Amino acid sequence: MDYQKILNEIDAELKQTPNSGQVASYIPELSTVDPNKFGIHLITTKNQHHGLGDSNERFSIQSIAKALSLTLAFSLEKDQLWHRVGVEPSGTAFNSLVQLEVEKGIPRNPLINAGALVISDVLVSRLSDPKKEFLEFVRSLAGNPAIDYGSKVSASERVTGYRNAALVNLMKAFGNINNDIEEVLDFYFHLCSVEMTCQELAQTFLYLASNGINPLTQKAVISSSKSKRINAILLLCGFYDEAGEFAFKVGLPGKSGVGGGIVAIHPNQFSIATWSPKLNSKGNSFKGMKVLELLTTKTESSIF
Amino acid sequence: MDYQKILNEIDAELKQTPNSGQVASYIPELSTVDPNKFGIHLITTKNQHHGLGDSNERFSIQSIAKALSLTLAFSLEKDQLWHRVGVEPSGTAFNSLVQLEVEKGIPRNPLINAGALVISDVLVSRLSDPKKEFLEFVRSLAGNPAIDYGSKVSASERVTGYRNAALVNLMKAFGNINNDIEEVLDFYFHLCSVEMTCQELAQTFLYLASNGINPLTQKAVISSSKSKRINAILLLCGFYDEAGEFAFKVGLPGKSGVGGGIVAIHPNQFSIATWSPKLNSKGNSFKGMKVLELLTTKTESSIF
Amino acid sequence: MDYQKILNEIDAELKQTPNSGQVASYIPELSTVDPNKFGIHLITTKNQHHGLGDSNERFSIQSIAKALSLTLAFSLEKDQLWHRVGVEPSGTAFNSLVQLEVEKGIPRNPLINAGALVISDVLVSRLSDPKKEFLEFVRSLAGNPAIDYGSKVSASERVTGYRNAALVNLMKAFGNINNDIEEVLDFYFHLCSVEMTCQELAQTFLYLASNGINPLTQKAVISSSKSKRINAILLLCGFYDEAGEFAFKVGLPGKSGVGGGIVAIHPNQFSIATWSPKLNSKGNSFKGMKVLELLTTKTESSIF
Amino acid sequence: MDYQKILNEIDAELKQTPNSGQVASYIPELSTVDPNKFGIHLITTKNQHHGLGDSNERFSIQSIAKALSLTLAFSLEKDQLWHRVGVEPSGTAFNSLVQLEVEKGIPRNPLINAGALVISDVLVSRLSDPKKEFLEFVRSLAGNPAIDYGSKVSASERVTGYRNAALVNLMKAFGNINNDIEEVLDFYFHLCSVEMTCQELAQTFLYLASNGINPLTQKAVISSSKSKRINAILLLCGFYDEAGEFAFKVGLPGKSGVGGGIVAIHPNQFSIATWSPKLNSKGNSFKGMKVLELLTTKTESSIF
After folding, report:
1. Between the CA of residue A157 and those of A29, A93, B105, C222, what are the distances in Å?
2. Looking at chain D, which residue has its C-alpha nearest residue A268?
3. Domain CATH for C125
4. β-bridge partners, A195
5. Which residues on adjacent β-strands are paired with residue C214?
6. Helix, strand, or coil here: D285?
7. pLDDT at C152
């Protein structure tokens, strides 16, 4: 498969289409990004690289980081993890308190905000220096010790993160948060602020296309079985209220962030990252969704 | 009407009935109260006093205080107050986040927790020393400068009040809280900790049976029109998810608290306070509800 | 109290105010009414009559009839009636299936559509010829044998009443409807189609201002205790999602219908009916609400 | 891969485990089935057959038929189909009216009852003799003209199907049902009553493992792209409120029915059908779920 040619075709086609949507504005630090940034990077499991556009410029990966904190927590915990967070699609907006209240403080899955806060609580319990150790984990996946938190973004999040504070307080009321609320929120806001390029992002997630093996080190990040399960969660829950639409039109496990990034995985074939800051009404990158839809249409290939 | 005779009859009848229910246990300081405490005090608008039992022992008035903070806020604010909180019954449990999320951070009424937190925010904005001035307001109604906050209870609330913290954070996310969250919560937990006897409680609420006039000072606490409107809110919203049941069986405006107290008002006739710590499944005093039902049955008199 | 003078003043004031709102359009037969129709009729418990405008023209009383079917059912049943329908405000729109599903087919109160369908089912079980006997009941209250169903309206309802069919099927699924669905719906659509003038409506509801006694016959329609309880239900549940607003601003038990009618009761004083077809966004007559608000403001008199 | 050996191992293992759960009892005709029935049949895309147990005994396929009616409707309609029904997981119980009301009569996906009723409405509009033509469609997939509706089951469904009648009436109220309600329900109850053996069921669904081609006729049932999309819907929505759990543990698109059947597809590899009437608390066959979980564990193979 000549992926470079396909990516170039997609790029050419999308130049004909207006780039709709709005840049995320709820955090000041996100709203200042150039809305016309656009990058793609694809890495095959045979280590072939294909990219274009602004694929070497860093941006805030935001919720994409939730797949990484999930991986780290799942590698440290056994199945009792799933007593504290479900694996079902949420069926409602990504930060809904309604579901959380009805289901007694157990979030539907680890990729909605509430679930990611529970995962953060797990890591705060498990790690002696959570922020440092999480960053090391991400750096080892990306193969780049320069990956870091975006300090302005995490500070910005803390100031406006009242809804996340509501979520974590509610779960604490239900007994599903063990640590100090401020410590959990601080860790959570940091992990969402990690900055990467498309290339780094595609590299970081390649273990999910490789049965849990980090291709850079040949070491297991997580077992093959757990790797498949994370892919299942990504497919069902990775795109907020648009997960079904993404599975329907693209057919790959993936995760998006409000910074405009999307990462998707074709098991045993490739991982791909896209970046375009304008978001559709569901909070997913408008152009990134189009790229991935065109990719699986042109390759006539999805997990289905 | 010989109210003392009627109260004695009620007392005698209730001695035949088992006192069901559970003492509130979510705050340690509340759970240690003697479950068999029982007091009634009724004061007519002609200043006749009738009481029995433990009517001169102080207890934590809890949510009953929300009617007082509402009165103070309504006396300071014009109708724009009702842009921030509604006057509709909640139709769901008293601390539901579901309704608050669906209705964009506007609580249904000022007597549910969320609404009382908005009222607290109003008072924190309006008063220069909110805790001190609120206490002075209550003392002037009770005619007793010894009325005070129960410090153990308010501290206890703060430790376990994660759900209230969730509510106030959610409303802050919707832009409906103007002050610092900790300051609003601190004021709220204090007002709920006020301690009174049945006699003091009946005295305190007599202004609502007297068209807004404090009978002790003959000064207007609030206008006659606003006094009627507070009574309307009490009737519709004063008993959590059991407001309809109370209106149906008792037919008086009133307010209950999880400390086991209930206050009720018959406009132009009397105010009455009861205390019995065991709560029914809806969170209202089991025996207090019975007292008031028997009272309006025996007097064949309600607002309807 | 010179009620005629007050009504004339209200009429004069409202002529200065634009008459907002929309005539109900979901049934063709309702949408053809002249939107400028306007009538008031007040009858005191001493049988003094005061009226103005189109107070002797008949209109479809719609949901107001639900208070009458409730009265008839409550007079026939004991308290077990309340195992099948609650007495709590609904807190949501008047025909919501959400609440009904969450609460296992038990409607919150007898004045929302679901509750009125349960009351209809009770009457279908209890009466040998339900439509005939209900009409006789209404005629005896109105003192007029010419009162009748509006046949075009009831036929019109049946054609478009899919939401009511959904409600009754859902309750049947929960075991809370005993009779044939079509028979219950037919009775329900008929009772909502009853046509009356303001004068007839005020006369019909005078028993609720008279402790359950029909002033025309001096016979008890229902016991005094039950009469008070129906007033309590009217106050809490009579105006859909605007019940709190009505209690707050008007302070009287009442019931509205989408035909533009409203009836309100001041116990031991009067009953009043208004008619103006334009409805506010909550489905209550815009001008009728204003009339009643002005009435209790000018008389400085409400149940509170 | 020696599938027969693996199936035999699974069978042996499951004999060591208690068979939990309850046979569906809401329809009398389903409750009389022998709870110990157990069959498996797997067919590879190379037409290899492997089976065991009661795999040649017919049972009521129930909701599994919804995947077939969806296929037929999707083959007849263009993308405007998705204006009437979504492709998102439901996040709530399979027959919830709550979601339907909130989302204005548009079901979340075509596999919940409401969505299947919309699909039925589409087929009633599109086909001249819907019941006959649907049966022919199923027979051509199964390669067996003896496949038929279970008349007792469909009659039984009609009698108790009040909740489905509620759903279809509610959608009609929202304008999302075009045909007569009784005709839609009759078609729906028939399609759910189709009876097949495990072998017939596996054969019938083999087109979804074969890019939309019926292997028996080599004709396209549906385009390759649409076939992938149906698989995506099956993965996200095929197991009621347990879809995430199934994707997480099994990792294959599939569909279950309350008759105890499950069908699952591994694209380009096989289709498999299981039958065991005892259902877990989510309404899916307890033993069938175990079979499929063991299958993908033992083969270390899923779509992820």
Report:
1. 9, 19, 20, 62
2. D304
3. 3.40.710.10
4. A60, A148
5. C219
6. strand
7. 78
Q: Which residues does chain C have within 8 Å of residue D173's beta carbon, measured at their own beta carbons?
A: 162-163, 166
Q: With an 8 Å Cβ cutoff, are D166 and C166 in contact?
A: yes
Residue B92 has pLDDT above 50, yes or no: yes
Determine whether the interchain pair D304/A229 forms a contact, defined as Cβ–Cβ distance below 8 Å.
yes
Q: Do B106 and B85 contact (CB within 8 A), yes or no? A: yes
What's the total number of domains in chain A? 1
- Which of the residues in chain D have pLDDT under 70? 91-95, 154, 158-159
Task: Tell me the pLDDT band of B94, cut-offs 50, 70 and 90.
Answer: very low
The residue of D95, D101, D168 whose CB has the most chain C CBs within 10 angstroms, and thus the best one to mutate to test that interface, is D101
With b meaning 16 or more CB within 10 Å and e meaning fewer, what string describes A34-56? eeebbbbbbbbbeeeebbbbbbe
Helix (H, G, I), strand (E, B) or coil at B275: strand
Taking only the tens place, the pLDDT of each residue in A83-113 is 999 998 876 654 577 778 778 899 999 999 9
> In terms of residue numbers, what domain contains C45?
3-299
For chain C, what percent of residues have pLDDT higher than 70? 97
Q: What is the ipTM of this complex?
A: 0.91
Query: Residue B280 domain-assigned?
Result: yes
Q: Which residues of A touch D249 (CB under 8 A)?
A: 229
Six-digit token string for D105? 């009569």
Residue B65 has pLDDT above 90, yes or no: yes
Residue A304 lies in a domain: no
- Rg of the Cα trace of chain C? 18
In a domain, A125, yes or no: yes
Active-site annotation holder among B55, B60, B63, B69: B63
Give, in order, the Cα–Cα distances in Å from A98 to each of B170, B265, C239. 12, 35, 27
Inside any domain, residue C304: no
Contact residues, chain B, for C300 at CB < 8 Å: 224
Among A192-196, C237-241, D97-101, which range has the highest average pLDDT? A192-196
Q: What is the pLDDT of residue B215?
A: 95
CA A302, CA D87: separation in Å to the nearest integer?
17
CB contact burial C199-210 (16+ within 10 A = b; e otherwise): bbbbbbbbbbbb
- Judged by CB atoms closer than 8 Å, whether chains meet at A166 and B97 is answered as yes
Residue carrying the six token digits 């995490």: A154
pLDDT in tens, A45-69: 999 999 999 999 999 999 999 999 9
Chain-chain contact of B91 with C86 (C-beta, under 8 angstroms):
no
Q: Is B38 left (phi over 0), alpha (psi -120 to 50) or beta?
A: beta
Rg of the Cα trace of chain D? Answer: 18
Q: Is C63 a catalytic residue?
A: yes
Under a CB-based contact definition with an 8 Å cutoff, are residues A19 and A287 in contact? yes
